[in-house]
Design brief:
Blueprint: E1 2-4, H1 5-8, E2 12-15, E3 18-29, E4 34-41, E5 50-53, E6 58-62, E7 67-70, H2 74-78, H3 91-101, H4 126-145, E8 153-155, H5 156-159, E9 163-166, E10 169-180, E11 186-192, E12 201-204, E13 209-213, E14 218-221, H6 225-229, H7 242-252, H8 257-267
Parallel strand pairs: 2-7, 9-14
Antiparallel strand pairs: 1-10, 2-3, 3-4, 3-8, 4-5, 6-7, 9-10, 10-11, 11-12, 13-14
Amino acid sequence: MLRSMHDLEDYTIAATDGDIGEVKDFYFDNEAWVIRYFVVETGEWLASRKVLITPFSIQHPEWALRRMHVAITKEQIKNSPDIDTDKPVSRQHEMQYLGYYGYPYYWGRAGMSNAGIYPAGFGLPGGQVQEEHAREESVKAERARHADDDPHLRSCKAVIGYHIKATDGEVGHVESLLINEETWAIQYLVVNTSNWWLGHKVLIAPEWIDEIRWLDKSVTVELDCASIKASPPYESSQQLNRERESNLYNHYGLTGYWLIETVIEREE
């Protein structure tokens, strides 16, 4: 199911031993278009400090109660690396944060490995110790290569209001983001086209984006104004089911992301 970014704001994040605070924003990876962190305001118990919570830690959400339970304690939050959420989060900060909680990196080949959880050669026959040690060294080198990378993290709130530019003109502005509750991928940008029709909204998928100009606060898409104008309107009061998504992709003559994912799974 897809949920609006605005609907997810102010959700309570509950640790194993009490409430941590409320979600105030999200950091997403502007290359993969996936939510990497929730920005959570802790409230008075931690001097209203803002902390990052990764979706890795979610045990189960209670959608009706607007609560998400995470597999960490308030003490862990209190002692977690301090990150200034008013400034860009560096890759070094991410490494400190993920390392503190023991979560895997999501970038590079190192992100695909569980190496580093146990000492090299732990529980292995003697003949495999050297091979395991070499693998550990390879992972460390990979992590070092990515230490100064641009993490491509952007605030979801900051993108609201960005102008949408088609190939032949401006069509509206970003009003919200629709997030997949299972994968935490940003599935669509909700675009308000009030410069054409008052209250009319359409959906734009991230894969249709050609360029984002952060300084200009604009998003350029590989679609023309006429096709966007004729696309199926988005009604927030109606559940965006697979039939409506199919109609949207069929309108543009494109293959739905769910069909592409199915092909990839079969190949694997």
